[in-house]
Design a protein that fits this description.
The chain is of the alpha/beta class and 313 residues long. It has one domain: Alpha-Beta Barrel (TIM Barrel). 29% of the residues lie in helices and 17% in strands. It has eight helices and 14 strands. The strands form three sheets. It has an eight-stranded parallel barrel, surrounded by six helices. Strands 5-6-12-11 form a four-stranded antiparallel β-sheet, with no helix packed on it. A two-stranded antiparallel ribbon has the order 1-2. The radius of gyration is 19 Å and the shape is globular. It starts with 13 loop residues before the first strand and ends in a 16-residue tail after the last helix. The structure holds flavin mononucleotide. Flavin mononucleotide binds next to strand 6.
Length: 313
């Protein structure tokens, strides 16, 4: 009796905004430091790529503690975008990252005015070996009364236009989920020049200690991430991908290979994994390995063919 031939290794490669990734798994911003910190824990070259912590033109200290709180199947955070600043990233972190072969580095950028974004991108433009910029628009526009860039179509249009004008790299716009119509925001980002969109960032949320009556997070409100948000994130990725024809990077609560497949079937070309790295620092690499097995067992030759492949009848 002949046993069935072992399935051939599936092709896990995907392409996003002209960037070739060896697999669709990207470590999400704010959960993977500047990458270097994970070098001894994760084989960085086994990931599709990683997004570094959000960078601003000036270094920032972040919010006072407590800044993290675990909720059922999720996590609240109000880190406050603490970072070393774009200049220190270019001068100190990038040279170390450049010594590691075969990795793809994305730089996440944020600001509180259009000029902030512009200045940060100009500094990052001086660095080498950054694949693309990911624009975090879930920040208050302090010049325009504090509404989030990503919650106001006009502000989103302006900030993406500004970033596109100064950027010498592909631009991924990371949408805020704290909106009524994600499809509208996705379209605005595309029309303003985004080469891809990524979503979702964290959901505005909070928790109170009923005994002390104090907020669990010093900042009072925080961002919710992790498996608790996955079904909502998936719906938003689905809505956004149907609204645009640029690639979509999906995220929100991914912790298994099957979760990745769900996001790809909903329309994502690649995914990011954030909170899972908090309970298992090796999660990104492990889940990328599981994805290969998942596809091999089902004889799926190319993972890219899953994108948008949901069957409705
Ligand atoms: C502690 C923490 C810090 C984060 N910092 C950033 C950041 O600097 N920039 C950004 O765009 N997103 C940031 N995020 C959002 C994540 O990149 C991701 O969009 C979100 O957590 C949803 O994915 P997940 O459920 O897999 O964590 C942060 C998330 C967490 C949990």
């Amino acid at each position: 009796m002949t046993s069935p031939a072992a399935p051939a290794a599936p092709d896990l490669s995907v392409s996003v905004a002209g960037i070739q990734l060896k697999n669709p798994v990207i470590a999400a911003s704010g959960t993977f430091g500047y990458g270097i910190e994970f070098e001894d824990v994760v084989h960085l070259n086994k990931l599709g790529g990683f997004v570094v912590k959000g960078l601003s033109a000036q270094p920032m200290a972040g919010n006072p503690p407590p800044r993290l709180y675990e909720t059922p199947a999720g996590m609240l955070n109000a880190i406050g975008l603490q970072n070393i600043g774009a200049r220190a990233f270019v001068d100190e972190k990038l040279p170390k990252l450049r010594q590691i072969k075969n990795i793809v580095v994305f730089a996440n950028v944020f600001g509180y005015s259009r000029e902030d974004y512009e200045r940060t991108i100009e500094i990052l433009n001086e660095g080498e070996d950054i694949a693309a910029y990911e624009l975090n628009v879930s920040c208050p526009n302090t010049v325009a009364g504090g509404i989030q860039f990503g919650s106001d179509p006009r502000a989103l249009d302006e900030v993406v236009n500004t970033a596109k004008r100064v950027s010498r790299r592909p631009l991924i716009v990371k949408l805020s989920p704290n909106v009524t119509s994600i499809a509208l925001m996705a379209r605005v980002a595309q029309e303003a020049g985004a080469d891809a969109i990524s979503l979702v960032n964290t959901f505005l949320a909070m928790a109170i200690d009923p005994e002390t009556r104090k907020p669990r997070i010093a900042n009072v409100t925080a961002g919710l991430s992790g498996p608790a948000i996955k079904p909502i994130a998936l719906r938003m990725v689905y809505d956004a991908s149907r609204a645009v024809n640029i690639p979509v990077i999906g995220m929100g609560g991914i912790s298994t290979a099957a979760d990745i497949v769900e996001f790809m079937l909903a329309g994502a070309s690649a995914v990011q994994i954030g909170t899972a790295s908090y309970w298992d620092p090796v999660a990104t690499e492990k889940i990328a390995g599981e994805l290969e097995t998942w596809c091999a067992e089902r004889r799926i030759p190319r993972v890219a063919e899953l994108t948008g492949g949901m069957v409705t009848e």
